[in-house]
Amino acid sequence: MRSPKNQGQVCDVVAVAAIRVMQRCDILASLSATPGSIERTYLSPAHAKANDMVQGWMREARMSTWQDAVGNIWGRYASSDNSAPTLIVGSHLDSIVNAGKYDGTLGVLLGIELCGLLAASGTDLPFNLDVVGFCDEEGVRFGATLLGSLAISGKWQDSWAELTDTDGISLTQAMQNFGLSISQASTAALDPASVRGFLEVHIEQGPVLESRDLPVGVVTDISGARRFSLVVEGKAGHAGTVPMSMRKDALLGASQCIALVEEATKRFNVLATVGDISCAPGAANVIPGSVQFLLDIRSARDRLRDRALDWLMAAMRSHCRKRGLNIDSIEIHSADAAACDSRWQRLFEHAMRDAGIEVNSLASGAGHDAMAMAGFTPMGMLFVRCKEGISHHPDESITTNDAAVALDVLTRAVCADADVAAPI
Ligand SMILES: [Zn+2]
User: Fold this and answer.
1) How far is CA 115 from the centre of its chain?
2) Among candidate residues 85, 87, 272, 354, the one with its CA nearest the CA of residue 74
3) What pLDDT, on a 0 to 100 scale, did the predictor assign at position 82?
4) How far is the CA of 137 from the centre of ligand 1 (A)?
5) Residue-wise pLDDT tens digits, 201-240
6) CATH no. for residue 259?
7) pTM of the model
8) How far, in Å, from the CA of 2 to the mean position of ligand 1?
9) d(CA 377, ligand 1 centre) in Å
10) Number of structural domains in the chain
């Protein structure tokens, strides 16, 4: 199947589509709980407005639309084959508090433009092409992430009904206020046999593509993270009376532990971060008696991450023991790495080559809806360069040209997939 890009004037059409995507990212940025900054959490009035807006744009692209049982918004560019499977393209419409404009929204809007290009060229695909705007990737309101994509991949948990937001509103109540019923939530699940794959285009949220001077890159894996709360226990005492040789200073012990975290990243080539630390009793003239800190460790390879973790925990215990300190840890989060489907990686690579873009790939250190879709259907991701790697921040920035390249590569990959799918 020929990509619309190869049909005469469509190169300009892609450029115009990218300009529209950027304008629409600006419009979605204005649909926020807080004027002047972006805050669009699950089941909020801003979420409802974003769904309405995106639904209107889907209809403009001649797609049929619906909202599912958990609040994901959908549009379909239908195949003429009624029994055809479905390829899903999308990302999320929710945001963190004080977010950037492109995280999530870019992938949804590029999907709509893809359908618009196909409709304009009269392309009949051998599969339905569905675009989804997921309702809750960030997990800001109820603390549980990826609710929209977990629901459609059949992993909705009934226990989530009792989750509450900071105002004490339960997920059950919030869904009701939104016009949904939590008793129907599990019906959002799709039949995996009817789904051909899932593609997500997303800003990189890191500096790698910019450092390579490349607009887009193929994602190989999404790293799996484990998080721990660690407590080092020593003995508080007077800063002026206890000799240095007789102290059990929890903060000195914790400092060595944190230095070991960096050592583990070098030895095992993983990423690890201590992003929060608190010290008690917490006074200038008191020897720290107890220190609590949070560790996040991640890698695209679970076994490597776990080996690094084993080494790190043993080393931290050994250092604490030498100082007469105790160290305890509680695991507070664990997610496995998700490998992107190799066939989709090849299709994106061919598409980049055809588009004259240097083929390159990178792993994702951040979680995405595609993680929830992995294992449910073959999943592929394409990253788009963002300025200075800044994300989850109002300074998040991409160029119109990079959005156009991403749309071009996505379109070529989908059309190449159509070539190998059963002909209509
Ligand atoms: Zn995102």
Assistant:
1) 23
2) 87
3) 86
4) 7
5) 999 999 999 999 999 999 999 999 999 999 999 999 999 9
6) 3.30.70.360
7) 0.89
8) 31
9) 19
10) 2
